[in-house]
Amino acid sequence: MTYIWNRMDRVPKDLMPHVVKDCFNEWYQQEVKNLYKLNDNEKRLLNLKVAKQLRNMNENLERLGYAND
Fold first, then answer.
1. The pTM of the whole model exceeds 0.85
2. Is the pLDDT score of 69 beyond 70?
């Protein structure tokens, strides 16, 4: 799946970086909504997935000059 924070170059400049951060937060909330139903291994995998996507978003924000926004 392609996430908006991995394709920031396609987001209109007047919406950056707020729309990307809002989308990430919405995605994160959906991912952790049923966290209590997961077993330990599934929780670990989810944490790895979230950490990877957060790292991708932060790296892309920095690459495009939005590191301090």
1. yes
2. no
